[in-house]
Structures are given as C-alpha cells and as structure tokens.
Automatic annotation (TrEMBL):
Record GO terms (molecular function): N-acyltransferase activity; phospholipase A1 activity; phospholipase A2 activity
PANTHER family per UniProt: HRAS-LIKE SUPPRESSOR - RELATED (PTHR13943), PHOSPHOLIPASE A AND ACYLTRANSFERASE 1 (PTHR13943:SF37)
One GO BP annotation of this record: N-acylphosphatidylethanolamine metabolic process
Name this polypeptide is given: HRSL1 enzyme
Entry annotated with the keyword Membrane: no
Organism: Lanius ludovicianus (Loggerhead shrike)
Family the UniProt entry places it in: Belongs to the H-rev107 family.
Keywords: Hydrolase, Lipid metabolism, Transferase
Residues annotated as transmembrane: none
Length: 146
C-alpha cells in the first residue's frame, strides 16, 4: 500500500510513467496538454509536446490496465523532503502547465523534484534516448497517418 509522498512507477509500453501518491487513492502527475489526442497515442504524443498539465487523479484511473508499484528508488542516495512539504508543494501545482521535455523534464523528473528537491531520471540514459528516438520516429509515422 502506498503512503503519501511515495513515488509510483507505472509500466507503460516502452517506458514508465511516474506519479506521486498523495493519499486517499490519489496521485499527482503530469499529463500532455493536448488531451484531444486519442488514448492510443498519448505516450507517443508526450514525446512531441513541450508542455504538460499537473493533475490530481485517482491512482486507479492513471494506472488503467497497467502494472504499478511503489518505487522510491532514490532513497538510498537522496534524503526525501518532509512528507507535508512534498504534498503541499505538489498540491500547489495542480492545474498548472509546466515545461515538459522527455529528456530533461519528464514525469520522473517532476515527481523526484517533489520528493527530493532534485529532478532525477535514470530512465533517460543512452539506452533510453535510443528507445525514445525510435518511438518518436514510429510515433511520427503513426500521427502522420491520422
């Protein structure tokens, strides 16, 4: 069971989506601003967008049919901020647009910044960049066909 302030890692095709658990079944996470994109293409669309919106949503709605887990993987090398501070800062950001960059300011950077005061994403490694590049190319072809 997640506790407030925990990082939630959600398995999506080709990448992991990250959210911050805030209690009572809710998470705060970033989503692409263009919600008119069909859900099949949301992960692809997020590669191309430069803005995201901070949302508070039910964990079960964000997860859908995907697998998820609590993953505070940076606790061994970073000290989490006090839970009250994490939640307060996260809630202050709800409904705001934030800069989104899959390589430098993604959903994992967002939640680790809230938890630790520092945005970190090991998902964006050289291997991750290659996968993202391939996904972007395929996504571009798919979106061009719409």
């Amino acid at each position: 069971n997640p506790k407030p302030g925990d990082l939630i890692e959600i398995d999506r095709p080709l990448y992991q989506h990250w959210a911050l658990y805030v209690g009572d079944g809710y998470v705060i996470n970033v989503t692409p601003v263009d919600e008119g994109v069909p859900s099949l293409f949301v992960s692809t669309a997020s590669i191309f967008t430069r803005k995201a919106k901070v949302k508070k949503q039910l964990l079960k709605d964000v997860v859908g049919n995907n697998r998820w887990r609590v993953n505070n993987k940076y606790d061994h090398s970073r000290t989490p901020l006090p839970v009250e501070e994490i939640i307060q800062h996260a809630e202050e950001l709800i409904d705001q647009e934030v800069t989104y960059d899959v390589l430098g300011s993604n959903c994992e950077h967002f939640v680790t910044l809230l938890r630790y005061g520092e945005g970190v994403s090991h998902q964006v490694s050289d291997t991750g960049r290659a996968i993202i590049g391939t996904t972007a190319a395929v996504g571009g072809i798919l979106l061009a066909g719409l």
